[in-house]
């Protein structure tokens, strides 16, 4: 049996709860008019490109049901591509195609679909089946990330991404989300992806969890997480921190992927990032956010903010330290 941790112990460990996150950080620091850039992936991509920030290539968009009949002309000649809702959340509605065979499309899971199924999925996106609040949506057709081979065995049937919580331009906590067969190739912890806590100072792995249980190796590939280290770590932190100024959001989650050729790329933003990152790191957010506020009060320079974060939030000097959020069997 999993032993639950008492509310009092969670407070002492600096765990940030949903109510406090919503009131003290999202509500207090994020102006509602700035949510648009995070809630709409097309808007995020446009803003990032205007600032010279790297993003996956956009092949095309579909805005109306009448355009679906011509979708074949918008699909790239390359074997792989991604179809996603512009206003989707939690990985819902993302269709990843990794290849083609005789007019059929191969999903990341290996299943075959045809053009009719792609059109049906596109129609569902436009109707708002996957969007925030069920609103009518737009369809994005993007390049498939050719992710860094050094991360290849850590994710199965999908691209791993790196979620970084940023507060007032200071990177506070990070994890890599690794797709699994159970998550259908999506980097979504609620669907069965693995969350690997990452040391802000070094980009090295700390802990790995699936379904809120500590694990030591990927459930499908069998590779251990102990030796995982994120390449281009400084660039990853720079990219995440840059999103604060781009959006005007003081509290956000930046999702970043590592492309084989392009290096770190901004995938999307989240103005309401989840709290499972604390479990993956076995560290509470609340005390780190307080420390990040002091850093932000001391300097407006992004390079200095990142350097201080790397010094303060590394495993050897973290004032919160390791803890058992999950309990023992």
Give the SSE layout:
Elements: H1 7-12, H2 18-29, H3 35-39, H4 41-50, E1 58-62, H5 71-74, E2 81-85, E3 95-101, E4 104-107, E5 112-113, H6 115-126, E6 139-143, E7 161-167, E8 170-178, E9 194-198, E10 205-210, E11 213-215, H7 233-247, E12 251-259, E13 263-270, H8 277-281, H9 286-298, H10 302-312
Antiparallel strand pairs: 1-6, 2-3, 2-6, 3-4, 4-5, 7-8, 7-12, 8-9, 9-10, 10-11, 12-13
Order of strands across the main sheet: 11-10-9-8-7-12-13
DSSP E strands, number: 13
Proportion of residues in helical segments:
25-40%
Let me know the largest β-sheet. Answer: 7 strands, antiparallel
- Uncertain residue ranges: 319-329
Task: Report the CATH superfamily of the largest domain.
Answer: ATP-grasp fold, B domain
Number of helices: 10
Listing every helix as H and every strand as E from the N terminus to the C terminus, the arrangement reads HHHHEHEEEEHEEEEEEHEEHHH
Rg calculated over all Cα atoms: 20 Å
Mean pLDDT score, rounded? 89
Instruction: Name the beta content range.
Output: 15-25%
Distance between the termini: 5 Å
Name of the CATH architecture of the largest domain: 2-Layer Sandwich
Indicate the CATH topology of the largest domain. Answer: D-amino Acid Aminotransferase, Chain A, domain 1
Number of domains: 2
CATH class of the largest domain: Alpha Beta
**Coarse shape:** globular
Question: Which structural class do the helices and strands define?
Answer: alpha+beta
